[in-house]
Amino acid sequence: MSPARLSCTVSTLARDVLAGPPRPARVLATTRQALYVLPYGADTPLAVIAPGAVRVPTAVVLPGAAGERPFDGTAVGDAGRVGGGHLAVGGLDLVARDTWQPPRAQDTPPGPTRERLAALRPPRPVTSEIRSAVTALDHALTHGAGVDRRRAADALIGLGPGATPSGDDHLCGLLLAARLPGPAPDWLPVLLDTAHHAATRTAPVSAALLHHAAAGYCVPQAAAVLHAAATGADLAAPVAALLAVGHSSGSDLLHGLCAGARLALRPRSTPS
To answer: How does strand 92-100 pair with strand 5-11?
Structure first.
């Protein structure tokens, strides 16, 4: 028996993929809360997520009617189909109905966002596995030339623990801080190039997040921190919500945001 077709809510980025012609797809990764599906010919996977999961920029949000364990029985490598307005994979047959707009750093209201982030000290330390690489990148972006910067940025790709490695999350934070309203820092092109080539160096899901961060797209928890910093609101609650994302992803992303803000405000010294 074919599965019942369920209505889902899709991001505007995912909507364009679902609206295209039908094509094969395959499962790249699964968790209890999400299923990552790559359509044939696409650069980034769609994230089919449970209602309470973190909304990444290409999320397809399941309705409650999908049940408590909607991804049981679906494994990496399983075939699916995407297009014509719906997505079929495993025991799911989803039709796109409502849409939502993933937030972007560029849409943060004018305000002292970078100044407040630069002054913020995240409550958790930088993940130990990436600490030396983070220090080296900070030095390279402040004092180094192009080759030194690229080498230091590349060293973070795929580095550290987590389904999305800590180094990738830190780089996402740097990219989002660089995309905030105001002058773009001179190191942004180097990080854009690093993000562009991430697919060959890290997991596809993490590479997709870097791809979207390069364009300014972020999860709602990060956008809430940026909005609070811009408007002068208390940062405690949005920071706590960001820290709750993943095991260390939220903390690594926050460190990247704060480091990026400090670097964007810091006068650049003469390259050594």
So the answer is: parallel
